[in-house]
Amino acid sequence: MRVEQIAVFLENKSGRLAEITAALAAENINIRALSVADTADFGILRLIVDNVEKAKATLKRNKFTVGITNVIAVEVADKTGGLAGVLKTIEEEKLNVEYMYAFVNNSGENAVLIFRFDDMDKAIESLQRTGYTILSGEQICAL
Amino acid sequence: MTLYWEEEIETLPRIGLESVQLTRLKHLVARVYKTVKPYREKMDAAGVKPEDIQSLADLVKLPFTVKEDLRDNYPFGLFTVPMDQVVRVHASSGTTGKPTVVGYTKKDLKTWSGLMARALTCAGATSKDMIHNAYGYGLFTGGLGAHYGIERLGATVIPVSGGNTKRQITIMQDFKSSVLLATPSYALNLAETMETLGVDPKSLSLRVGVFGAEPWSDNMRDEVERKLNIKAVDIYGLSEVMGPGVSMQCLEGKTGMHIFEDHFLPEIIDPDTGEVLPPGEKGELVFTTLTKEAFPIIRYRTRDISRLIYDTCECGRTLVRMEKVTGRTDDMLIIRGVNVFPSQIEHVLMGTEGVEPHYQIVVNRVGNMDTMDVEVEVSEDIFSDEIKVLEKLGNRIRADIKDMLGVTCKVKLVEPKTIQRSDGKAQRVIDNRKL
Predict the structure, then answer these.
(1) CB–CB of B89/B101 below 8 Å?
(2) Closest by alpha carbon to B234, among B338, B225, B226, B242?
(3) How many structural domains comprise chain A?
(4) Do A9 and B413 touch (CB under 8 A)?
(5) Quick one: B292 and B403 in the same domain?
(6) Is B386's CB within 8 Å of A39's CB?
(7) In principle, which of B21, B113, B193, B354 could form an S-S bond with B381, CB 3.0–4.6 Å?
(8) Is the ipTM of this complex over 0.90?
(9) Spatial separation of the C-alpha atoms in residues B334 and B161, rounded to whole Å
C-alpha cells in the first residue's frame, strides 16, 4: 500500500519550477499533489503524479536529477481535528516522520496526507490497525 | 643609510658572486649525483655528468625538477642525508592526497635563520625591534622560518601565529609591536578590526610590515600602508627551495625583491619550451639551491611567473631582483595564504561515494578575505528526497576538504549538467578576485 513519489533536485533559481510543470503538462501528466522543501541553496520538489514512469522519463530528458521514493497516503475526513487524530496515533506508535504534506480531494469530503516515515512497514501496520484508510497510487489518481 | 646583515656578500660585484655560485654549484651537483638515486637517474638519462658543469652557463644541461618528482619520492626520497642528520621537516600542499615534504639539517636551519635575518634587515629591522609574527606556525614554513630568523637577528619575537585578531591587536598595543609579519590579506583584516574597535593605527608602534605567502597587488600595498600607517615590503619563498627568505624587497628600492643569490641560483624559462629566456624577460622562475644539505633541489620549476631585474639598486645590493610574482603557469590557487590545487579538491570528491567528477571551484574576495565555493553536481546516485541527507553530504565534503587542505570552503550542490563543459580541458576554476 505504498505510493510512488517523484522527487526532483532544484537549485534555488527562478523559473525551475515552471519548467518542470510545463514539461509534465506537455506530456499530459497530471500532478495530484506537490510540496517543495527548501534550504538557502537548493530545494527538493516532491510530486505525486498519475504516471510515474512517464514523468520520470520526461524530467530526465529535461536534465533534472530525479528519484523515486515510496510514501504512504492516508485518507482522513476533511474536518477539524482530522490531522490531529493521525498525528496522535503516530506519536503513540512512536513513528518517526521524515516529512509530510497534504491535499484535499475533488469531492472536498476527505483530505489525503502524504507521509514519509523512517520505518514504513511499521507505519503501515500501525495506521491500519488503528483504523485509518491507506490509499494506493491508483486510488489517489482516481480521486 | 642602508642596513646590511652581511654587507660583503650582499654588495659583492657580480663577478665575485658568480665565482661563489659556480664553486657551490659544482659541489652541489657532485654531491646530489652521488647520493640521490632519482637525480642520478635523471642526469644519466639526459647524458650529463657532474664534471660537465664547468661554468654557470652549463646549468642548462641539467634536467628540471618538478613538484611531481617530490610526490614520486614521497616522503623522504629526495633527501641527501641520513634521517639522523635531519632535525626538522616541513610540508606544503601536494597536487593530490600527499603533501610535499622537505627536510633540514642543523646547518640548513642555521643558513635559513641567517637568510631570514638578512631579509628582516632589508626591511630595516634590528635587534631593537619587537616583531609580531602572525604567520601560521606548523608544517607551513612561514611561522617557524620567520621565528628563528627574528631570534637570529636578536630582535624580540612575538610568536602570535594566525587568528584571534582582537587579542593580536591588544598585544600590539601592550607589547608595542614594531614590525608585523603576516599575509597581506590578514594585515587588512587586522586594519579593519582596529577600525571596528576604534583603535587608531597611529597610536601603535608599528613601523613596517613584511608581507608574503600570497599574491597581492600594488593597490593592496597602498591600502595596507595607508590603513596601518606603515611601510609595506614584500618577502618571497617556497618550501621546496627553503621557505620565506629566498628573496626580499629592500626599503630603498622601488620595485622587486633581492634574490639571495649566494644560496639560490635563479633562472627564467619559457614555461612551454623550457628554454632559458634572455635577462629581463618575463617567464617561469626556476631555482637551484646552492648550499642546502638535507633537501637540495636542482632547477626546480616554481610555476611562478616573474622577471629578473639586473639594474643596480639604490640600496647598494648587487643581488638580482625578481619582480613581484604576477601569476602561475599551473592552476594552483592561493586561498588565504594556503596553496590549493584543484586536483586536491577532485581527490576529495572522488573519495566521496557517488559524487561525479563534475565540479567547479569559485573563488571570490569578500572584503579582504578569500572565499572558496565548491560546486558539486547532484547525480542520481547521491540524490535523496530528504533535505537532511543532502545537507549531510555537503557537510561531509566540506569537512573532508578542511581536513585535507586546511581551508574552509562552502559546498554548493547544483543541478546536473549546469557546470560548463568546455571542449577539451574543463574549466574547473573561476577566480573572481581582482588582484
Answers:
(1) yes
(2) B225
(3) 2
(4) yes
(5) no
(6) no
(7) B354
(8) no
(9) 18
